Amino acid sequence: MHKRIQYIDIAKGICILLVILGHELTWDDAARYFIYSFHIPMFFALSGVTMRLTHECEKTKKDFILKNVTGILFPYLEMSMLYFLWDLISWLASGKLSFHLIALDFGQIVTGYGINVLWFLSTLFFAKLIFYQLVRGSKKNNSIIGMLMIFVTGNVLLIVVPYLLCEFPANLVGRYIEWGLISILRPVIAVFFLGFGYYGYPLFENRRKNRGMSISLLALSICLIPVFLQGKITLVNMVSNPFFMVFLTGTSGTTAVLMACSLLEGCRYLSRLLTYFGKNSLIIMLTHEYIPVRAFIQKSVEQVINNYFLQILVTFFAIVVVEALICKLWGIYRVYWRRIIKA
Fold it and tell me: Does the pTM exceed 0.85?
């Protein structure tokens, strides 16, 4: 078990809070363009940093696959079943249950497209397999060349895929083909950001020690470009307008946040809070969208508060509190379960 690095957990904490906030906003909000420009690419980049810190690419292929099957693929399948059961209960309660809806959920699961936020897990799993092979199958210089090829390929895909998706029939078979294609191609984009985190970590560490705040501010300002252009970026459907923007803002946003985290380490209470959310970022990622209480909070806030900005703010903080409780309960459950196993 590697020693956790606080500023990496702080970065994950910032990222997951941005995910929650981003899901509360609409594309009419400038803040959503800003957040979506880098928050998911940053998660992939931080996974690349973690791969380097844990020497994951030095494991045997068997150990590497086993680790990621148990750590990523199994949670994907388990949460998919839970999401499906929740959808099933909702359809039964509302009288909307149909074969078509069941087939849609089933298709998203088996193709790897993922129900709701679960696309992140399936994409991360396959991206890590590709990246592992890239690192193990070549020398360092060749790996960098490989990353450049991934970059070029990713840009081509972001140009071509939107046109391909328009050609599929608007029926169940067409949706399955569309989801399957996206599920195969999404990891290619993710591999680039894994590599950015993996190979860029030594540079982040060096500049962080030198307090590279000027770099941080410059990098963060680049993420404002989609706000002015209203360029939509969402990796779930491989959308980036213009096509290269996700690479520019994804790397810039990641750099900015990692550089800024050196300052946040000195803020005692804020750093502890962000570290807590960072350590539990995967749990929050998997639960914040599908918890029934989320819809209840949104409706309750809308009935009490008329101001849109305050609605977003209150809903965001309420969901964060609920997620903190879920993480606490999960921690208690894990400790209790381990005691049972040892007994």
Answer: yes
